[in-house]
Design a protein that fits this description.
By secondary structure, the protein is of the alpha+beta class. It has helices at 6-35, 46-57, 62-70, 101-114, 142-157, 170-177; strands spanning 78-85, 91-98, 118-119, 165-166. Helix 1 runs antiparallel to helix 2 and helix 1 packs parallel to helix 3 (62-70).
Length: 180
C-alpha cells in the first residue's frame, strides 16, 4: 500500500507549514537586523521594539532575535523601495531588505516582466501611497485579476520583499491576498 503511510502525510503537511513559517521568520529577522543598525537597544528604538513584538507574536525563538540584532556588523543590509506598474496599470510599491541591491533590482525586474509588469521611475508611484490608504483605487477585469494574482504570489514568495502595497480595489485586494 504505497503512499498510505501516515508519517508521509504528516510530513507533507508539516513541510508546507514550515515553508510558510520560515518565509515569515526570515522577513522579520531581516527587518530586525536593519532596525538594529540605528540602535541595538529596543528601549530607545521603537521600530526595533515593534519588530521584536511582531517576532514574538509569530513564535520566533528569542535566540534568533538576539542573533539578528547583533548580526548587523557582519552583513550590512540595505532597504530599497521598488516602484512598478502591474497588469492593468496597478501601482505597486515594494519595500525590500537586501544585502545586494543590484541583485534584488535585477531579479525583481525579471520577475515583473515575466508577469507583464514593469518597473517605474523613482518617485512616480510613491505619491499614490501618501497617507493611510492609496490616493485612488483601480479595479481590474477578471482576466487581468488572475494575472495580477500570480504576480502578487511571485512577489510575495521572493525572499527580499517585506510587503507589497498596491492601489487595487479593496474587494479585489481581499481576493488576491486572502487578508482584510
Amino acid at each position: 500500500m504505497a503512499g498510505h503511510n501516515k508519517w508521509k502525510q504528516i510530513k507533507n503537511r508539516k513541510e508546507v507549514v514550515d515553508k510558510k513559517k520560515n518565509r515569515v521568520f526570515s522577513k522579520i529577522l531581516a527587518a530586525i537586523t536593519l532596525a538594529a543598525r540605528e540602535e541595538k537597544n529596543p528601549q530607545f528604538n521603537p521600530r526595533l521594539r515593534s519588530l521584536i513584538e511582531k517576532a514574538r507574536a509569530a513564535s520566533l525563538p528569542q535566540d534568533n532575535i538576539e542573533r539578528a540584532i547583533h548580526k548587523m556588523s557582519e552583513r550590512p543590509l540595505l532597504e530599497i523601495i521598488i516602484e512598478a506598474y502591474g497588469t492593468g496599470g496597478v501601482a505597486l510599491l515594494i519595500p525590500c531588505i537586501t544585502d545586494n541591491s543590484n541583485r534584488t533590482i535585477s531579479e525583481l525586474r525579471k520577475l515583473l516582466s515575466d508577469f507583464g509588469a514593469r518597473m517605474a521611475e523613482q518617485g512616480s508611484v510613491q505619491w499614490i501611497f501618501q497617507g493611510e490608504a492609496p490616493q485612488f483605487f483601480q479595479t481590474l477585469p477578471e482576466v487581468d485579476l488572475q494575472k495580477f494574482s500570480k504576480l502578487y504570489e511571485a512577489l510575495h514568495e521572493y525572499p527580499d520583499t517585506q510587503e507589497i502595497k498596491m492601489n487595487i480595489d479593496p474587494a479585489q485586494y481581499k481576493e488576491i491576498t486572502g487578508e482584510e
